[in-house]
Every structure is written in C-alpha cells, then in structure tokens.
Amino acid sequence: MSQEALEGAGCAVESDNPVLPFLRQDRLPHIWCPGCGIGTTVNCFARALQDSGMKLDDVAIVSGIGCTGRVAGYMNLDSFHTTHGRAIPFATGLKLANPKLKVVVYSGDGDLSAIGGNHFIHAARRNMDLMVVCVTNHTYGMTGGQTAPTTPQGATQTTMPYGNFENPFNLPFLADACGAVYVARWTVYHVRHLARAMKEGLAKKGFSFIEALAPCPTLYSRRNKLGDGVEQLKYYKAKSTIKNGADTKDVGLTFQGDIIVGKFVDRERPTWLDSMNGHLTKVFPGKFTPYGS
Amino acid sequence: MKADPKGVLTGAHFMDGDHAACEGALAAGCRFVAGYPITPSTEVVERFAARIPLVGGMFIQMEDEIASSIAIQGAVWGGAKVMTVTSGPGLSLMMEHIGLAAITECPCVFVDVQRGGPSTGLPTLPAQADMMQVKWGSHGDYEIIALAPNSPQECFDLMIKAFNLAERYRVPVFFMMDEVVGHMTERVVIPEAAAIEVEERRWTKKKPGEYKLYETGPDLVPEMVMAGQGHRIHVTGLTHDERGYPAMNPAAQEQLVERLLNKIREHNGDLVDVREDGVEGADVVVVSFGITSRVAGHAVEAARQQGLKVGHLRLVICWPFPAQLIRELSAKTKAFVVPELNMGQMVLEVERAAAGKAKVVSVPHAGGTVHEPEAILAAIREAGR
Ligand code: SF4
To answer: Is this complex's ipTM strictly greater than 0.85?
Structure first.
C-alpha cells in the first residue's frame, strides 16, 4: 500500500498502522481526492471498531451510492455497496435476517437524506437496530457538485449556480424527531470525539445516527472559494462549539456559520425486533419462539 | 432436500390463489417477506404476516415497494429465502432493484399479481400486461425467470418451483399471477412435507480465503455465503470481478454480462416448462399462459368439435421463452394463435421464433376481464384458413 494511499485514507503513515487490518488493503489506493474528509471518517471508524473490541466477522457495512458510498468497499468487513439511497432498507433486511450482526450504514448526506430520506425516517421511527454514519459535505461529490438537501442557503452549487435559496435539513433534529436513540454530530477536526461516537454507536442497541461534517475540497470548497481541505478544518476548529445534550432543533447549520457539535441524544427505546418479539410472545403465550434467539 | 414441515399446511383446502401462493412460499422455505400493500396482491402478504410468527420467520411492511425490493436482498445475504409481493405500479417502482438482484446474483422471488395498466389503471381487474416489463424493465442486459400459474393449485405448486429455480440459478424469479388467478377460490391440495422437494442455497464448502464470491464452475452459477461467516465479502452493484471487487473496464463488463446471460441461456433445456395438448400434427397451435390458458382451453375444445385440428401449448415458464420449441413447431404447423390480456406482448416472441415460417395471429385484450372464448375461436378459424 502506498504512502499516498495511507495519507489519503487519513492514516498516520506508520508501518504498523493500527488501522490497516480494518481496510481491504488489496483495494487501495482509494478513489477519494486529496484533502477529502471521507478518509478521515474511515480512520475514525476503524479506530472505533478496534476500541469496540467487536469481532470483525460480526460487523457488516452497507453503503449507498456516491463518494461516501464507496466506504463499504474499502472496509475489511462483510460489505455491501447497494443502490442510491437504499442502504437503510438493505441493511434492515440484513439485520432482521441475521440479528446477530451489527449492521452499519455508511453513506453521504445526499444519499441518506434526499433519495433515501423516506427510508431514513422510517428506520428511525421503527428504531431499527442500525448505526447510521452520515458524512455531510453539503454536496453531491460523485456527480460533480450539485445541491444537496444539506447545502446551506447561500452556498453555490452547479444546480444552484446563483446560490442556494432552499432551506436545508437539520439532520440531527430530523433523526431525533423520528425517534433515533443516539444522535451525535462531529466534524473531521474532532477525530477523537468522532471515533468515540462511532464506538458508542456500535455498542448502542437501536437506531443511532452520527453526522460527520467533512470537507469536499474538490467541489464544494472550490465552487464556494473556501480554500483547500485544511482551510475547512480551520473553519471547523474556529466555529465549532461542543454542546452535549443540545436541543437538536437548535443545531441547524448555516453557510460557514457556527457549528454545534456533540452528543445530542442518548436514550433507551425497544428496537423493532425487541418490540416484535415482546408483543408476539404475549399474543402467542408458550407458542412463539422469539425471532433471532 | 425435503420441505421443513413447519411451513407446510398439509391437507385439502379451499383457498384463493393469493393465499395458495403464500402457502407455496412457506412450503418452499421462504422465511422473510418485505412488502407494501397493493391491490390485488395484498392477500399474499396478509396471510404471510398471519402465518409466519408460529412458522418462525419474519414479515415487515416497508415504507414503499422500493424499500421492500431491497430489504429482501439484504435478508438474502443474512441467509434467508425471500419474497416480495406486488402489482404493476409497485413492480414499476422495484425495477432498479431487479437489476441489483441480477448483477449481484441474489436469489429472490417477486410475485406480481397483474392488474390493468398503465399507471393506476384498473386496480381490481385483471391483465397480463407486465410480461415485457419483467423481462426488460431494469436497465442493462440480464436474464430472469418468470412463471405463470393458472389456478390456485398451481399458485402453490409452481411457487415451490419458483423458489427452487431462484436458488439454482441465482436470479430474480417472477411469479406472474393476475387478479383472476389471485382471487379465484378452488380446491388446493398441499402434500406432506416429505413429498415436497426444496432446493437448498448453493452454500460453498470453501473456507474464508479460498472462496471467491463470483467464481463459477461449468454451470456458470457461483456458490454462496452469508454475512457473518468470516468471508469478508464485498457485494456491489458495480461491474465486478470474480472477487466481487469493482472492475471498471470493458473486459470485466463483457465477462460479467455474458455470464449473467449465459447462466440462463445455456440451461434453456432445464427451463422449458410447457403443457402440450394435441400439438403434434395440429394445423393451428394456440399459445397461451396464465388465466388466458383456461379460456383458450374452451376455445380449443370448441374448435375441435367443429373438426379443426388445433393444439394448445401453455407456457408455464414464460421467461426464458421456449424459442427453440416454437421454431420447431413453426415448421410443422400452419399458424399460431396467441391470446393474452395485453395488447400483444408474448406474441412478439412467438413471431420472433416462428420467423415467418408459420402465420402468427395475435388475440389482444386491453384487460379488465378475460377473453370471450368466441374471440379466440374466431382467431383459430381465421388462422386455420
Ligand atoms: S469529490 Fe469531494 S467528496 Fe468526492 S472524493 Fe473528491 S473531495 Fe471527496
């Protein structure tokens, strides 16, 4: 594996890099641009897997389509690169057919909240036992920088060439309102926090949602004259405030404005499968074998 | 392998086609269904939802047909035998995931209880107008299998075959019912579990490290694993190589797409399933499928009473189309008559296979009810002239 590839994946270049066993080394170098924030989130995810102590055979990762959608293919896990927006329903089927798996959905903001928005809200409503990592870079990278449901007002994208006038989603608020049991947001400047959130998400039973703000220097930053990836990290550093437990309705993002990061929601609610098993055990006393037991 | 008795409701029943299809799926080992309500198919999932808790399995009503058609594919990689159930508009929404099932070689069954279209069309009335949609609806080149039952009994029997073929060839298999077959109630005999053959998934015996996701033997169908077994598979809808890794080049594309086609095309012998009635030596052969075959049967009888030499060829498997059989028959018969509850879909295949050697007469019908036997009889008489 090349030094460039390691750096691109957000890894410190060491011969005994602890992240390497978590990557499919025969698939590197990866496709992401220099300075892209996706690789940093992958690095955090690898560290979370390591710190979680989980057996990697028990973890599966599902992605949709887009730059972040390629994450599944680089992880040394059972991995599924599905269709645009549909990672969550695929993951739902995988998890329900084999409840012993920890199933992680790893995708971009456009994939999860535009074309996949309906699946997102219903999986949160059901409290499906999935960890959903959303890399938010406010744009469609793979197709060349179009407006996303997360593009802040005033930012310019190829399909909003005169500036975006739409109201963007506040994704933590959406996840919270739909019933997610764990909701956090960090940026790729906050690597330790992000890795810890992912570790908590892996341990959490139910629908956990982690938004990771990440720069897309090639398209979003360039089009909006925001400098390179490092410039965006500086922005994250300067404008982020950690507010654990913040009311999610107050954490909406504005164009290069203040960013509230933190763990916003951490609560208990029965998962879909636990609800089904509990309910049917009552309906069929002595006859029903809890599914997945 | 014999059927798991837990899913087999042995006995003689009086049930409609939708319910019989559900029982067929349970007998075949289907233990995961994701679906979304749509007339006239809903009874299939309603029965599954009622039956599955004590059989041991899972039904989930998803937020739409798009979700249903991919949740089942996730469940396949979790180790389950799966089905989704829909009708025309829902099937249209599922098209992208039919392509995904084709390229990832995901064994799954799609039940389509056909109704009149296009669009919302005739929700409560029959048609057979999705025949080309299931063959060609998703983009790109791929092969599928489609079966057309014509009675509640066949909804049970052929459903087991549908599941078995999905496992044998690792393709999406379509179960092409229609509103009449779905809602007609008849006697359905369900045998003992020990008398039902079900095909197991083609699980590999190879160990992690030795196994490649899309390596195949001479039959061109790869062996399968499920997530959690340590193989660390990568499954992608991108064009991929034997390891399952994306391969963005024309050579990989050619190799993969040709195999997806050839794993069906080279087994066309196994995949011909027709019912022949007096076809040898007939001047006119009626080619039909599904509910229309029952109406056509009456027309054929009436024509014979009038002294005409008429045969009846019913397609049980519609896709792949038995082109070779039609080609051979076209050398021996004067004409084919093709009644169907659409404006002329499978007739195009008959014409293609007959290649001008025999006359081909279409008996189209826009749907909403079945043909009048007289319309088919008139076509037989005209074709025989
Ligand atoms: S286009 Fe943007 S999001 Fe995609 S890899 Fe490049 S920098 Fe990353």
So the answer is: yes
